[in-house]
Amino acid sequence: xxxxxxxxxxxxxxxxxxxxxxxxxxxxxxxxxxxxxxxxxxxxxxxxxxxxxxxxxxxxxxxxxxxxxxxxxxxxxxxxxxxxxxxxxxxxxxxx
Length: 96
Known about the structure:
This protein has one domain (6-95): Tetrahydropterin Synthase, Chain A. It is built from four helices and three strands, in the order E-E-H-H-H-H-E. It has helices at residues 27-35, 37-52, 56-60, 62-79; strands at 6-9, 15-25, 84-95. It has a three-stranded antiparallel sheet with strand order 1-2-3. Strand 1 and strand 2 form a beta hairpin. Helix 2 runs antiparallel to helix 4.
């Protein structure tokens, strides 16, 4: 499932545009999550909060992106309790 793009200010006043896709198993659960506006809002809230707390320098490095990706996966798993979030993928990632 792919979330709508996030556009937000980062902790150091720079901006980021990020789009995240989540690999959720079973696949049927992915469709259920996408259809649930409250769950999608909870996912977006967690990701936006984490993103806004990061500095551009941290997110610009490969290690910083990988750490953020893992944290997104963990946060998504907390929201999607009855499915398995197997992977979080960055579909788009721009820092300005």
